[in-house]
Specification:
The protein is an alpha/beta fold. The protein has 2 domains: 5-17 and 85-219, 3-Layer(aba) Sandwich (Rossmann fold); 18-83. Helices cover 45% and strands 11% of the residues. The chain contains 10 helices and 6 strands. Helix 1 (18-31) packs across helix 2. The longest helix is centred in the middle third of the chain and has 15 residues, at 69-83. The mean pLDDT is 95.
Length: 220
């Protein structure tokens, strides 16, 4: 390994949840009178959570969200948690190929319940143990602040300057770059548009990986 530790974002890096989640948001907004494509949703909301997400959607539609939006989102999340989602292509093989002694963690804007449940579905929960860190639960400032990545690096005993981070969203990339780590912009998920790599490069990622074979060449 060229690095002492590795940190993973989750949605869109290991789990094909970004496209499905943004497709659901787009369908909801369109059905409620605000024509929105999955691509629109990914361009404007991807990587955001909590009030930052709500504010971005409300700016897009120009008014407060309908009161039943939260219930619709919760129902969709429960369905997905029950049924599971596909992994990003190559993710599981990459995780299984990591040296056993290499410190690693997940640092995600999603809840630890979401992360752990989907890791169970994917069959790779054991690869991370308890090192699942959420911007909603472990830090006061989530992404795009660097705090979550700094917290995760400290929790696994790693110097963030000797750590590599895999990120896919502009919001996450800003936090990862600000942490001082080496950042790989991953464009392997279904949500990544043709200009996605260019967007991540503009935010300061050190490398771009089109798939996990590229990631392997960059980190080993």
């Amino acid at each position: 390994m060229k690095f002492d530790a590795i940190l993973f974002d989750f949605d869109g890096v290991l789990l094909e949840s970004e496209y499905e989640g943004n497709r659901h948001i787009a369908n909801f907004l369109t059905a409620n009178g605000h024509p929105t494509s999955a691509e629109d949703s990914m361009a404007n909301f991807m990587g955001l959570s909590g009030q930052d997400f709500v504010s971005a959607v409300e700016r897009w539609i120009g008014r407060p969200l309908p009161p039943h939006f939260e219930g619709e989102r919760l129902a969709e999340n429960e369905r997905v948690l029950l049924e599971g989602l596909d992994p990003v292509a190559g993710a599981i093989a990459f995780i299984r190929g990591l040296p056993a002694e290499l410190p690693r963690a997940i640092a995600s804007s999603s809840s630890t319940h979401w992360i752990a449940t989907h890791l169970d579905h994917l069959g790779i929960r054991d690869a991370f143990g308890e090192h699942l860190y959420s911007g909603k639960e472990h830090v006061e400032r989530g992404k795009p602040a660097p705090d979550l990545y700094l917290h995760a690096a400290e929790a696994i005993g790693a110097d963030v300057r000797r750590t590599v981070i895999l990120e896919d969203s502009p919001v996450g990339v800003r936090g990862a770059v600000a942490s001082g780590a080496h950042v790989i912009g991953l464009c392997a998920g279904r949500h990544c548009a043709p200009d996605h790599a260019e967007r991540l490069r503009a935010l300061g990622v050190h490398d771009i990986a089109a798939d996990f074979e590229d990631v392997a060449r960059l980190v080993f």
